[in-house]
Design brief:
The protein has 8 helices and 11 strands. The protein is α/β, with parallel strands linked by helices. An 8-stranded mixed beta sheet has the order 4-7-6-5-8-9-11-10, with helices on both faces. Helix 1 crosses helix 8 and helix 2 crosses helix 3. The longest helix is centred in the N-terminal third of the chain and has 12 residues. Bound molecules: S-adenosylmethionine.
């Protein structure tokens, strides 16, 4: 549902406010059905952005973006998360946030599952999931009644007003420190989930999966551009008991899925370990 996030959205061309408008092919991205009605957002200068039939708005201003996670990766992610294996991460995020009246932004939202859990913990607050993957955004757009979804590149200026977000979530996704700092309120929090040193260690050893560099909180703060300092950090760890099929699904949602899939045999006990760090703006 876009309306909750609408007051915070800004035109990616000129930075003006956006309002609902009838469909117009003037600027926005493709893959959209123009059936009349309010199927676009438009700024006072006439730049228009299509709302896809599946509910997400394309705020790329027609600029090319890389496709993000593929349909297969997103399907595996949806299946694996729905099985509840990573619910402990969602719970850790939900326990860290505090009610406020700004927007909750999930940068690199994927299927929107973490955003939905956090919105459940923050009654009345609107949410926005940002991603470049269309298969992901189709799911994120219906992840929660208060969640909007937007196609936008995290490496470019974000289509959001200054100081619009009370919370920015960033779970296993690219981090744009200066833009996160710009959109975050002075009293807001950036919550970053990164893999801990032993995350999926058994699968990495057994199948030679791509090892994701564990990044310590101070290194993340530095990489964020110096605009943040760690406020709290906790490591959350679980042993997952996965069937052969579940193991395959988990591997399918990792960066290793972009390569030839390994031959998975049998059930596995796997360590899932993440650092959940809250940063406050400096
Ligand atoms: C590992 S997935 C994590 C998704 C979600 N946060 C989760 O944990 O379920 C990384 C996500 O970041 C998205 N992504 C990658 N590069 C991006 C970019 N430049 N801008 C926006 N999203 C991006 C991918 O499409 C993918 O959905």
């Amino acid at each position: 549902m876009i309306d909750g996030a609408l007051p915070y959205l800004r035109c990616p061309v000129c930075g003006e406010t956006l309002a609902r408008a009838a469909f117009s092919p003037f600027v926005g991205g493709g893959g959209v059905v123009g059936q009349g009605g309010e199927r676009a957002l438009r700024c006072p200068r006439g730049h228009s952005f299509d709302i896809a039939r599946q509910g997400y708005v394309n705020l790329t201003a027609g600029r090319p973006v890389h496709p993000g996670d593929s349909a297969d990766m997103v399907a595996d992610r949806e299946t694996f998360l729905a099985e509840g294996h990573y619910d402990f991460i969602a719970e850790a995020l939900a326990e860290t946030v505090r009610p406020d009246d700004g927007l909750v932004v999930d940068a690199g939202t994927g299927t929107g599952r973490y955003l939905a859990r956090v919105l459940d913990a923050l009654p009345g607050m609107p949410g926005l999931g940002i991603d470049v993957s269309k298969p992901a955004l189709r799911r994120a757009a219906r992840a929660h009644p208060r969640a909007a979804a937007a196609l936008a590149d995290l490496w470019r200026p974000l289509p959001l007003a200054d100081a619009s977000a009370s919370v920015v979530l960033n779970v296993f996704a690219p981090r744009n420190g200066p833009e996160f700092r710009r959109i975050l309120r002075p009293d807001g929090r950036l919550l970053v989930v990164t893999p801990a040193r032993d995350h999926l260690a058994e699968l990495i050893d057994a199948y030679g999966l791509i090892k994701v560099d564990p990044v310590k909180a101070d290194r993340v703060a530095e990489a964020l551009g110096g605009g943040f300092e760690p406020d709290s950090c906790r490591t959350c760890r679980r042993t997952l008991r996965l069937s052969e099929a579940e193991t395959r699904t988990l591997i399918g949602m990792t960066p290793s899925a972009r390569h030839e899939p390994p031959h998975v045999a049998g059930a596995h006990e796997v360590t899932a370990a993440v650092d959940v760090t809250a940063y406050r703006p400096r």
